[in-house]
């Protein structure tokens, strides 16, 4: 089996995938995106770095490293296409990707996947590259959702489905049947930070927790890229907003440092669970 190429953006996910692949005895090559991935995270790995517009450099480095499969991991900010520093291959692709951007983030991702596949790479998702990070069905810690929380989860799932149809976001917070917040371009953390600003009559408190954070992929999303992620910080921010728990779609969301997530949720009094998708 050839080398796994990880096209790394920001956050913990690229390193977690690299560690998982190495633990399985697979060679890893990290292609870091300048100004997004942290160089220090990958000091122990073969790596190269390129700007987001340097497509030729990226493709050449992956091929030279012997990569037969690539996975996209981590946060990548939507670029200012007019200000990108492009190499020759980047110039050839930018018009296509910029046109896709007018149709939403999912269209951008599909355009990028198509470019890499046409270059002979198999594009794989985290479910294949690091399956132990994928959320499983069930309640993970000591705390369990009550009936109202289950009702809120049901409503939140409807909200995410509608948001996903419009390519808006992957997360929402619902309390007692009221939608407190939805995720758009700002990301989940920024969304959660808005909830404490709401009146205590609308949201829960540390002493009386109410409501759920729910994360699930968009209905038509290519699940090889951009799966919803939760980590320890997600739990902490949900707790600060008075929420009672977090629900993610089993098989279609990522848990970063699951043991620490469960430990933190148990300590703060939140449930964390994976729910099954509707057939």
Question: What is the helix tally?
Answer: 9
Low-confidence stretches: none
CATH architecture of the largest domain: 3-Layer(aba) Sandwich
Structural class: alpha/beta
- Beta-strand percentage? 15-25%
Question: Would you list the SSEs in sequence order as H and E?
Answer: EHEEHEHHEHEHEEHEEHEEHE
Strand order of the largest sheet: 6-13-11-9-7-8
Description:
The protein has 279 residues and is α/β, with parallel strands linked by helices. It has helices at 13-23, 55-64, 88-101, 105-118, 126-129, 147-165, 188-194, 232-240, 258-268; strands spanning 3-8, 28-33, 46-50, 67-73, 122-123, 138-139, 171-175, 178-182, 212-215, 229-230, 245-249, 254-255, 271-275. It has two domains: 3-130, 3-Layer(aba) Sandwich (Rossmann fold); 134-275, Cytidine Deaminase, domain 2, CATH 3.40.140.80. Helices cover 35% and strands 20% of the residues.
């Amino acid at each position: 089996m050839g080398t796994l190429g990880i096209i790394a953006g920001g956050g913990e996910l690229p390193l977690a995938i690299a560690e998982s692949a190495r633990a399985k005895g697979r060679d890893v090559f990290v292609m870091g995106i300048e100004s997004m991935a942290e160089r220090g995270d990958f000091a122990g790995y073969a790596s190269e770095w390129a700007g987001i517009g340097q497509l030729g450099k990226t493709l050449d480095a992956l091929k030279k490293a012997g990569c037969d499969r690539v996975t996209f991991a981590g946060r990548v900010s939507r670029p200012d296409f007019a200000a990108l520093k492009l190499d020759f291959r980047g110039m050839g692709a930018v018009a296509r990707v910029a046109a896709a951007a007018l149709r939403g983030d999912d269209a951008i991702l599909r355009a990028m996947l198509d470019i890499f596949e046409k270059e002979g790479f198999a594009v794989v998702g985290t479910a294949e590259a690091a399956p132990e990070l994928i959320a499983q069905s069930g309640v993970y810690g000591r705390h369990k959702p009550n009936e109202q929380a289950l009702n809120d989860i049901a409503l939140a799932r409807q909200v995410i489905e509608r948001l996903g149809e419009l390519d808006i976001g992957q997360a929402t917070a619902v309390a007692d049947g009221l939608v407190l917040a939805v995720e758009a371009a700002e990301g989940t953390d920024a969304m959660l930070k808005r909830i404490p600003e709401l009146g205590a009559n609308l949201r829960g408190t540390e002493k009386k927790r109410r409501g759920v954070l729910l994360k699930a992929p968009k209905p038509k999303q290519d699940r090889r890229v951009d799966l919803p992620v939760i980590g320890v910080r997600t739990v902490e921010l949900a707790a600060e907003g008075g929420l009672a728990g977090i629900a993610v779609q089993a098989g279609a969301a990522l848990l970063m440092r699951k043991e620490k997530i469960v430990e933190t949720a148990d300590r703060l009094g939140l449930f964390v669970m994976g729910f099954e998708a509707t057939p």
